[in-house]
Amino acid sequence: MNRRECWQPVLDAEVRKWSAKSCAKLIAELGDEQSYDVEFEGKKYQVEVQMLENTDKYVHVCVDMDDGSIPPSFRPLNQSFIRTK
User: Fold this and answer.
1) Percent of the chain scored above 70 by pLDDT?
2) What digits encode the pLDDT tens for the residues 26-41?
3) Nearest 5°: phi and psi at 82?
């Protein structure tokens, strides 16, 4: 399994966590980009979450993650989701 395939379960868990939040909670928490570390199966990963759009109808959020290694982390794994208001 390559590095990016190993990262996928971490990204999936973080996207599930953030996409479960209400629009109001996302707007409140993502006024500024959120950056933090998580541990998964004994390894540390870096996560960044940011709001891409906040329209009258929806918010669009992006979750990026990597393991901090260079050069693979120059291209983090990411996924975005849209939460309707």
Assistant:
1) 100
2) 999 999 999 999 999 9
3) -120, 130
Domain 3-84 has CATH 3.30.1300: yes
Q: Closest Cα partner for 65 from 39, 51, 47?
A: 47
Q: What is the pTM of this model?
A: 0.90
Provide mean pLDDT across the span 55-75: 93
* Domain residue limits, the chain: 3-84
DSSP 7-74: HHHHHHHHHHHHHTS-HHHHHHHTSS-EEEEEEETTEEEEEEEEEEEE-SSEEEEEEEEE-S-TTGGG
